[in-house]
Write a structure and sequence with these properties.
The chain is of the alpha/beta class. The chain has twelve helices and 13 strands. The longest helix is centred in the N-terminal third of the chain and has 34 residues.
């Protein structure tokens, strides 16, 4: 359901603030003359309940696996808006908990060795894991509550510090020294401040693909470009559902191989091109639609660049639950998209209009 009714602005704010369920409950207690408003609130509540139920089922399964491995779960929670779980364990149990998640098919958002790994266990507080399915399930495993004091902000290592340099195991404590120098280097412009590579990779939920194609007005004559196409689900679905051509660019050779196989199995290999490379270097002269599902820090770099490179009449659709970065040119349209098991906000730019 693409929501264009008058209450969408309040709905968008609720999504951005991760309060969608509360918004729907509040709407349900009010009296409306607008039947569409009641219908939207009812559908939003139903979606939130389905997401929560799915998350709770997955949490129960993971907690049972952790318990079987001798890991006690101290606390846990689930979202009713995102496919996200939080699990708290004791610091001494964290390595075993990680092993359980990796053995169950989850992937870590980052990988460290030697001193960085030792520092993470001793001074870090959490790690994010993802597993792809109809949607990406995100698990935040937390083994320590990080204190937000001044000393912690200055000397407490983070993933950006562990990624900056490789130290031997015995020198794990050195990351507390690396951190202030890394921060100074970034402020002086001597080092990039882009830590987006540390973000978990998420895929567009399958149930959102068709509504997003509608937002982008994709037809048979279009050429759809997916910036960071992952396993190719979006470009293959676009070619299958709309008869268009599509191009997916992905830096992971393994995911490219999955995408090529997916296109072949769907019978659209002649209309889907998968490129293993950097999306920023691709020729966009024939592209008419670009679809983005990126961390907002990355989107802030690429949206306006894409607007300058695309031909008039092209469309860009960025979807995310986060509010749009202030540095990005305001979109021509914003839509809340609610389906059975997923929520997003779709921003559309019409190039040259």
């Amino acid at each position: 359901m693409i929501i264009d009714t008058p209450e969408r602005f309040e709905l968008l704010d609720a999504i951005y603030r991760d309060r969608l369920s509360s918004w729907a409950d509040a709407r349900a207690t009010e009296t409306h003359s607008d039947g569409d408003g009641d219908r939207v609130a009812a559908e939003v509540r139903a979606t939130c309940r389905r997401i929560r139920a799915s998350n709770e089922t997955e949490l129960g399964r993971l907690v049972a696996m952790l318990n079987d491995a001798g890991v006690a779960v101290a606390a846990s929670s689930v979202s009713d808006q995102r496919h996200t779980l939080e699990i708290d364990v004791a610091p001494t149990d964290a390595p075993r908990a990680v092993a359980v998640l990796l053995g169950d098919g989850f992937a870590s958002s980052c990988s460290f060795a030697r001193g960085a790994l030792e520092s993470m266990w001793r001074t870090g507080d959490s790690q994010v894991f993802t597993r792809d399915g109809a949607a990406t399930t995100v698990v935040q495993l937390r083994w320590r509550r990080r204190r937000a004091g001044r000393l912690q902000r200055l000397f407490g290592p983070s993933r950006a510090d562990w990624d900056a340099v490789e130290l031997p195991t015995w020198l794990w404590w050195g990351y507390s020294i690396v951190r202030p120098f890394r921060i100074i280097a970034e402020r002086l412009g001597l080092r990039s401040t882009d830590h987006s590579a540390l973000e978990p990779f998420l895929v567009t939920p399958r149930s959102l693909i068709e509504p997003l194609l509608d937002v982008a007005s994709v037809g048979a004559d279009d050429v759809v470009f997916d910036f960071g196409s992952g396993d190719g689900r979006f470009v293959v679905a676009a070619a299958t559902a709309r008869g268009c051509r599509s191009i997916g660019v992905e830096q992971s050779p393994e995911l490219c191989a999955v995408a090529v196989e997916r296109a072949s199995e769907a019978g659209v290999a002649d209309r889907v091109r998968i490129v293993n490379g950097d999306a920023a270097e691709i020729d966009l002269s024939e592209v008419t639609v670009v679809v983005l599902f990126l961390p907002m820090v990355v989107a802030a770099r690429v949206v306006d660049d894409l607007r300058a490179r695309l031909r008039p009449g092209a469309r860009i659709v960025l979807h995310e639950q986060s509010s749009l970065a202030h540095s990005i040119t305001r979109p021509d349209a914003v839509h809340a998209v609610i389906v059975d098991d997923a929520v997003t906000v779709a921003h559309r730019w019409n190039v040259g209009v």
